[in-house]
């Protein structure tokens, strides 16, 4: 990649979560970071942390993951990380929307919120990313013009009693990733999807769950965001002869 | 069902298609028909045909399958087929949106059109239907308060190069059907999903496809809407001990 | 089928079970019955019952479902139901082998028993059946030379902690059925697979399970063999334009 | 792992193939190698190559992958790599049996050969391996007592016209791997399955296929065994919080 600085774009970042850990992991590989998220203040704090650790990171707050928000934020990203000095070569769509309710209690707004954040945002994000990737040259080591990954969950492969809003969106995201993987493989663009099956040890989940009681201490029963990030870095580095569309990630002791 | 007249509601009806054939098949079983579709004129013509054949059918044209359209049309349906004289006991969500384009040629409007017609409409339709079903008594023969089926396709289980708008929506619909099947089984509400794998012999497809040349004449290579309808009637009549969530339907000679 | 008598062959028959119920259901449609099973005495008693009910049924006891046993028993079937007076037009492979053990407690004999009964037997049975089907003419109503169905279960689609012997065999059976469905569709031979998800109310299961306490009385929580048989008859009668490879069958209240 | 030397056991090794490349990759990580294969002479040549490259490798030729052969060869492995000086900590079951024939041309011997090499061998191999793994201590970095991986293919997830012998065996192997992953995760034993989708560039495939004409030169259309091996090493090193049961691997330009 010579003197062109590679950039990772992440949508969906929260302190201590998968997006933040992935950003940090790619920064260690020499990437600049464009971080898209709601919650401008928290996002800026996270970017400040990354910068004090020596990374080149920029916050791109959005009011929502609607397609217009996504399109608009990419204009700012291109201004901040202009070609030919920078090239976006990796992207993670990690935004999600957690909602578990009995079907008849779901409002249309609930349904739309899941669709917008999970599918519409990913659609717009992918169009922006793939348009950029197609202009990149092919990396010699990996055979890639770019790497695009989506974060899924067990809800991506199984509808359940309380997931009648989330499951349609997560299945939709998975379908998008499969279609894109098939369409853009021959462009040497690598598209992947990860099924995260288990609770991730984040400040958010620690504040929310205490069942089983020792889940935070017991490394066998929950995911570390850093370990998910390692998997994403691994996938980004897979050489052209052996690319993965999908893998699952779960703690050693997870019941499934 | 004594003197209460059962009603089938179908969303997505076109002359000679799956919706129309299902309507006719349920009419022969004694159901009144509430038919929701775009294209008021064609819909009325189809309803007139059904009525001349002796069925009790009513046209409920909609401008779109958006949730508000669906909610609004159900008010008209309840007015036309009021309780306790009528009871909606079967429903088919057959509306779909065919779109095959390279990903980067898709507009946001394309994406939304697929989402709205396939997923949002089904979500709103299902809420209306299941609310009604929960008020029904349990049919002695089938053990059902009601039967709700969704029409899927191979795009429902496989993303492909030109289906990056359609596949997310159809996978989403399938996820919805699975979630609802799991949530409402214990309410004795039967929710099913059919994967139609092949071309259906309709006026529309006859006007559009002529490959292979003899496909209309060759009964082994395409689906008849009437045969899909028979499958839907069969599913509606399955007894409580053995309900199907999903089946596939394809012509004898289909390559798959 | 004019004056040629159609024959159903069933492998895996036990009083009150799926095989027996399917036999009775096809007998009511005019089929003669060739019933293959272990346990000669019980099999003969069941055949006697079918005969007193007016069916034409014959017992073909086997020492095992090994391929040689299956091949040998088909010679007897052809002798008893000779062409051109009889034509085998439907077949059910219903033999299974229930084994749930921790992996390290499984013996090689356990493993082989599951493989032999579930996969090897089905392989040999299918070769016998499809060779015969290919000689049949095509039925006008269904477009079929013959119908072959396999009984699967949730173990057919999910490996679990105690199914490391059963799951490989049941997944193997499902793979066989899918391969055959694809290969012989163009021969107008219909191959199907049913996933039975739940407990079946049979003398055997009644003697074995009493959890939940009222499961036998509660029609919403278990399958009736007769209802599975109805599904098999339905599939056998599907017309050529709309054949099902796979459906699932479960009680209304089944958790899944 | 202090002064205890880790050992990788591979079943199914051929010069230039996945097994050999995986052996070499683990050797570079400090593993001793126990290589099981048919074809004693070729196996010894391969072991000699590994040894000249500085690896500690031993050939364990087998006449077949039958369970008795596998059990017997493990006695030799334990003699050669005795505890506590050595500990088997990784294992690859890579043996397969390629057979593509129309169903009615398959002999029972064909069917058994696929079953024996693909499923029975894997069953026996897994029992030997997991018994050993359970005695290991838990590795601090990975949280594992051991890592067991199986090589699958697209035939593992799709039955096709000419795979009615291979698909039942490969689906069976995948089911075994899923059952074991679920049963032994809580023992900190990591079981994985890889779906290799595409042609692998080996001496064997180069001698056999020349379609498309430039497939050997074009790095985008075929897998390198070394890249599959990299994936296996990555999986072996996944930390306890994020283990993968299954991933797919295919060339950038593969049509799927």
TrEMBL record, chains A, B, C, D:
Species lineage: Eukaryota, Fungi, Dikarya, Basidiomycota, Agaricomycotina
InterPro entries found in the cross-reference section: NAD(P)-bd_dom_sf, SDR_fam
Name this polypeptide is given: NAD(P)-binding protein
Pfam families per record: adh_short
Superkingdom of the source species: Eukaryota
């Amino acid at each position: 990649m010579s003197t062109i600085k590679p950039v990772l774009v992440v949508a969906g970042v929260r302190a201590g979560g998968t997006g933040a850990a992935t950003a940090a992991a790619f920064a260690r590989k020499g990437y600049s970071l464009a971080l898209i998220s709601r919650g401008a203040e928290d996002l800026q704090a996270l970017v400040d942390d990354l910068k004090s650790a020596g990374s080149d990171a920029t916050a791109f707050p959005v009011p929502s993951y609607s397609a217009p928000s996504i399109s608009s934020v990419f204009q700012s990203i291109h201004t901040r990380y202009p070609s030919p000095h920078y090239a976006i070569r990796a992207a993670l769509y990690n935004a999600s929307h957690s909602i578990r309710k009995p079907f008849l209690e779901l409002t249309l707004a609930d349904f739309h919120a899941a669709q917008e954040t999970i599918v519409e945002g990913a659609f717009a994000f992918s169009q922006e990313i793939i348009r950029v990737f197609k202009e990149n040259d092919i990396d010699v080591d990996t055979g890639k013009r770019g790497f695009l990954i989506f974060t899924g969950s067990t809800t991506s492969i199984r509808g359940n009693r309380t997931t009648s809003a989330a499951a349609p969106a997560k299945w939709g995201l998975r379908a998008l990733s499969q279609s894109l993987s098939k369409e853009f493989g021959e462009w040497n663009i690598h598209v992947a999807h990860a099924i995260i099956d288990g609770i991730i040890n984040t400040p958010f989940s620690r504040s929310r769950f205490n069942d089983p009681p020792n889940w935070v201490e017991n490394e066998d029963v929950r995911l570390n965001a850093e370990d998910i990030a390692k998997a994403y870095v691994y996938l980004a580095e897979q050489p052209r002869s052996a690319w993965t569309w999908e893998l699952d990630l779960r703690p050693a002791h997870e019941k499934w």
